[in-house]
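Assess the record.
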Amino acid sequence: MTLENDSVKYRDLAEYVRSTRMCSTHEHTEFETAYLENPPDILGNLFDNYVVNDLVVAGASTKSVQRLFDQRLDVRDRFQGVAEAWQRSQFTGYGQGVRLIAEHVYGVTEITGEALEQHKFKYPGMPGERLQLLRDVANLDHVQIDSVDWNVPSEAAGQDFFLYDINLCRFCDGTPDLDKIGRELQIEVTDLAALRRAIELIFERNGPLAVAVKSQHAYHRTLRWQKRDETNASEALKTWIRDGANTSIETKNCLGDWCIEKIAHLAAKHNLAFKIHTGYLNNVGGFQVKVSSSECLHELMHAHPRTRFVLMHITYPYEDELVAVAKQFPNVAVDLCWAWSLNPLATSRFVLSMINAVPSNKIFAFGGDSRLPAASVGYAFQARIWLLKTLESAVNDGWMTEPQAIELAKRLMVANQYEFFDLADKKARLRTAKKLHLKPSENSSIKQLDDWTHSVWNARPEAYGV
């Protein structure tokens, strides 16, 4: 699965895709302190990513998957517990990512217990290792990180590689963390005016250094949005303050819709894009429901034409609808993050459909959507391989020349991201930043995201208000 052997006919195109630094518009890369505190070993780097879902679907027990990451145990023995499931999963998109991690991080071409044992001491979790893997091995220009927090962390200041989103999912799903608001913003939320001020303050403090706003509320509610009046939203907030987790989904959706409108307005005001998870939910045996399709967002995007929306993950498996949405709305961009590993063949077809129907400035080629840098390495190589295959097919079919394909690759890999996110200015701000207003715990990990998303694995339609 190497780029070097994938193309003979279009060598200039292959070299460009292979060698160009690519932007990653979506990662969950953990902080340096968290990475050094609990560094992954070879099995963690290879398998602590989306492939665990395929292993379970292929027949591996939850216990054997958990045991895979227990570093107190022997490497060969831990792998043996999932070896059969791995053989069944190695050709999926997730499996391809694992094989590319093995090849490009460890120099392993066949994943066996013996090979893993021989290479287990490489990348032991040293300072700067995250940057080395992401910048030098994956050949990335930068990574845009969702740390599942509304604060831009202190490690963002003084550098221009690790960029951060403002995560406002709890507001969007109608469950704002009132204790956190009081603790960090010194605002007691008793009415909508206080809640509005809390959202405004988050933007004021973090907007200058953040790269975007992010929400994955599709994991907890329908994406379908409607405008809410102040009276109903006020009553919804009062219910949330009083009843908390016992609040009905209809009431939470009302409050969430009100918050989403404020967030969309402030995103435009602060020149920040609004990233929204669409489509497939990362789970095993959960309820996949079409209330996560891009069609659900028509009203929101129409109501906020000045807000730049990023619809993530190609809305798989509803990607055909997304082509039409991107064609209709000037303020919508499409992010291929996670999509290449989720289903590379479907993503390749989607890209061909997009470039046949939609202006080419609307597509971002890559985001690994991963916590561990090694996983992002594998997914970055996978994205390059499949992007090259896709562009080659366009040249083969005669409706694009090789130089034109190279220009298109430049747009999808780098130029669109710099233009859409105003990255030159954002990076300059980060390089000169000396002090940040809010500093979340640098020892936190992304586990809170895993716990949160896993809560919907067994969700039924009524959990989404449908």
Q: What stands out?
A: The CA atoms of residues 286 and 457 lie 4 Å apart. The radius of gyration is 22 Å. Strands lie at 22-27, 140-145, 162-167, 212-215, 273-277, 309-312, 332-335, 363-364.
